[in-house]
Design brief:
- 2 copies of one chain form a homodimer.
- Chain A is built from 5 helices and 3 strands; from the N terminus they run ααβααββα.
- Chain A has a 3-stranded antiparallel β-sheet.
- Chain A binds a DNA duplex through helix 4.
Chain lengths: 116, 116
DNA sequence: ACTATAGTTAGCTTTATGGCTAACCATTCA
DNA sequence: TGAATGGTTAGCCATAAAGCTAACTATAGT
């Protein structure tokens, strides 16, 4: 479940649509294909990509393959994003503190100038 | 700032590393390039891709181009993920409620069977 | 003015992506 | 058993991605 592959899988609108569909519950390949004006083999490729990214798993019983969402993979992405957010927010905080410090200095300088 | 392009941009480890670096503050192309064993033009391509995805902006002053992170683009991805999460969690809630219902029925059936 | 620095452009490979058709299993249903 | 259904495999095409080198432009420093 590599971040590369998960992001890659989500970079295609068709695949995101499939993911969105699967958020609502399992579905067969045929069901997944319906909304798309696309040949089945093409759609199958997308499903394969989703599977190899770990976002989707599927199982075949009889002649129908049922796909389901693997939410942990999506969670992985959320975790990564959250980590980045934390870093840049910490930086913004430091920046803000620095600006505050500058403001105070400016004030005290102003006082000094006045008192001269 | 298309979701396609943002996800696509993040699907490459080099570009994610650049994003991570930029979380810590602005950087020039040269600074960004240092950690990578990669020819400059190749790295520039990555920067271009990050720019066209909206994740990064850059400005050239003198001969140095300074890049900075555009956190809104990352936020867009977070929003999308959160939306999916909400959908599937709602479904899980419904499922849980359904299971609870089944359990209760089972209990009442058990009572009936006993009382017979 | 000369050199070094910082990017940029152009053009080339190799490999991956996204789509197609046509032909092929493998189950189910009549 | 024969036909319909649901996927699957194989192979083709066009375009884009990720890397390279070599040559070029434009500023900064001496």
């Amino acid at each position: 479940m590599q971040l590369d592959h998960v992001f890659g899988a989500l970079s295609d609108a068709t695949r995101r649509a499939i993911v969105m569909r699967l958020c609502d519950g399992e579905a067969s390949v045929g069901e997944l294909a319906k909304p798309f004006d696309m040949a089945l083999p093409s759609l199958m490729k997308h499903i394969r990509i989703l599977e190899s990214s770990g976002l989707v798993t599927s199982e075949k019983t009889g002649r129908v393959r049922t796909c389901s969402l693997q939410t942990e993979a999506l969670a992985t992405v959320e975790v990564w994003l959250a980590a980045q957010r934390e870093i840049w927010e910490q930086r913004l905080d430091r920046l803000e503190m620095y600006v505050e410090k500058l403001k105070k200095q400016e004030k005290s300088n102003a006082r000094k100038r006045k008192s001269k």
